[in-house]
Amino acid sequence: MPDILVTDDGPIRTIRMNRPDKKNALTQAMYDAMAAAIEQGSARAETRCLMIAGSAGAFCAGNDINDFVAASQSGELGAPVLRFLHALARCEKPLVAAVQGAAVGIGTTMLLHCDYVVAAMDAKLVTPFAALGLVPEAASSLIVPRLMGHARAFSMLVMGEPLTAEAAREAGIVNVVVPAAEVDARALTAAKAIAALPPEGVKASRRLLRGTPDEIVQRIDAEADAFKQRLRSPEAQAAFAAFLNRKR
Ligand code: COA
Fold first, then answer.
1. Crossing angle, helix 140-157 and helix 213-231, to 10 degrees?
2. What does each C-alpha distance from 162 to 46, 127, 154 come to in angstroms?
3. Which pTM value belongs to this model?
């Protein structure tokens, strides 16, 4: 089975991360597949709503740490990551997310680009960027302080304090918290409700709510420059080695 499953059911395109043995940690190939699915879904006339989902027990454990190690040696962040982030920021169709279990790093920051997020009671959102010697990505350094103010953004993005599903709902990242078994169905119900609305009205309204994507894309690129520098740092190297060599 591919690591990213893309299915079209009438107006709804579902993009499911499917690498459960690695908690859906994202490889370069997975970023590329997700980016292509969003770009094509955004352009495809029949599609009215896109849904991003993970697997039971894990939404996404963030970037694959082995890829971070490779990137730190090559000095490149990897074009597929940026392609994915740009696709999210420039997507013209509403994005719904269904989140169960761990949402780490980009697993959390991709949610900031979604329009409707359903989270399971067991969902845990965590962005341990500074602990890994890294910096925030996906324009989270812009969006999160706007959502929750600097102090709470600092504890989330710098101190890496996890958000429970309920705290994420209070912060405005999550719309609704439901039992894990109901997450996919509730997200699909939301996607169907969005898809039933007049699409041009939705598109125009969404544009007004989100503003121009250019500011978001600029921040994504600025963060990526800083991120590349940090990937090479001794702090990051030590953190990656600690994760990969941890005893369990
Ligand atoms: N990159 C590479 N492999 C990862 C990974 C990642 N980001 N996250 C998890 N995995 C792998 C583990 O190494 C393990 O592989 P193995 O079975 O071959 O040893 C497998 O996925 C299961 O992970 P495990 O840690 O045993 O599951 P858990 O339920 O105890 O914990 C997480 C889940 C997500 C909390 C934990 O794996 C984690 O913290 N991962 C790293 C997250 C991270 O720092 N991401 C980068 C953010 S910028």
1. 50
2. 38, 7, 12
3. 0.98
23 Cα to the center of ligand 1, angstroms: 6
DSSP 8-state code for residue 27 = P
Q: Please tell me the residue having the least CA distance from ligand 1 atom 21.
A: 22
Residue keyed to tokens 């043995």: 21
Interstrand relation of 4-9 and 12-17 (parallel, antiparallel or unpaired): antiparallel
Predicted confidence (pLDDT) per residue in 28-62, tens digit? 999 999 999 999 999 999 999 999 999 988 999 99
Interval between CA 224 and ligand 1 midpoint (Å): 22
* pLDDT tens profile 81-128: 999 999 999 999 999 999 999 999 999 999 999 999 999 999 999 999
List of domains in the chain: 4-180+198-247 (3.90.226.10)
Q: Is the CB of 65 under 6 A from ligand 1?
A: yes
For 16, the enclosing helix (H) or strand (E) is: strand 12-17
Query: Is 132 close to ligand 1, i.e. is its CB under 6 Å away?
Result: yes
pLDDT of residue 76: 75
